[in-house]
Amino acid sequence: MRMIRLAEMGVDTTENVVHLFLQCKFSGDLWSHVFNWLGISFVSAGELRQHFTHFTKMAGMPLFSHLFFMIIWFATFWVIWKERNNRTFQNTISTPFTLIEKVKIISFLWLKSKQVALAYSYQD
Questions:
Q1: Fewest CB within a 10 Å sphere: which of 7, 18, 92, 93?
Q2: Per-residue exposure over 77-108, b if at least 16 CB sit within 10 Å of its own CB, e if not
Q3: Does a structural domain hold residue 2?
Q4: Structural domain includes residue 44
């Protein structure tokens, strides 16, 4: 198994929370896939709190959708965190397709656990 240098993983030696979750290559690519999946255009804020607020409470979206976007936001962060740990400690790298599929399934499972009577299936 070959060792992966930090730069190959998109990890800067001065890694901070904003860089890890919003600015590094693999997280930026994942966010692009999330926006594409949702069919939205989104300008990423430079601070996590602003990013969360802008993403979960997009103008013009009905109030009931805020929960959906909140869950997707947290699922995306969870996938980024797990991928970072896998890259750092397991020397493995997932494809962007795999990462977006993880976001989708985790979002669905978390949403389903939050709203047991959810009328949507995973395919929806």
A1: 7
A2: bebbeebbeebeeeeeebeeeebbebbbebbb
A3: no
A4: yes
